[in-house]
Amino acid sequence: MPMSWGTITAVVTAIVILLAGCAQNTESRIPYSEIPPEGDPARGEQLFNESINAAPPCSNCHAAGNTASPDLTGYSAIAGERVAGETAREYTFYSIAEPGRYIVEGYGNAMYDRYDEKLTPQQIADLIAYLLTL
Question: Is the whole model's pTM more than 0.85, yes or no?
Fold first, then answer.
């Protein structure tokens, strides 16, 4: 039995809304050069676990046991090996500020893509410092 126009419209609308929230490969509003060289891992851990300026907390998706997003166990050991020519800090910045830039194999391009609008350069530095302790 064919779908009604109402059903088709609802399905297309749901897909459009889902895709609108997914990361696009757009350039960050904050250049890497504006990120302070030092971050506070304790503040970064708080940012990882709490919503700031209506941005979802990282822990919503990157929680232990969640198979929908990459596991961050041992992150600091592998971050610097992900992209040739980039440090772990650079890779982490781009993963936060331009999440469509690098997609870990086996995962889609679904990360929230407005952290560079919602977080300050210092907050991003703090988040990077925390992630590099994992």
Answer: no
Q: State how far the Cα of 25 lies from the Cα of 4, in Å rounded to an integer.
A: 35
The CATH number of the structural domain formed by 5-131 is 1.10.760.10
Contact between 75 and 134 under an 8 Å Cβ cutoff? The reply is yes
DSSP per position, 71-94: --TTHHHHHTTSSTT--HHHHHHH
Summarize pLDDT for 27-48 with one digit per residue, the tens.
899 999 999 999 999 999 999 9
CB 82 within 8 A of CB 102: yes
Q: Which residues contact 96 (CB under 8 A, 6 or more apart)?
A: 115, 116, 119, 124, 127, 128
Domain boundaries, the chain: 5-131
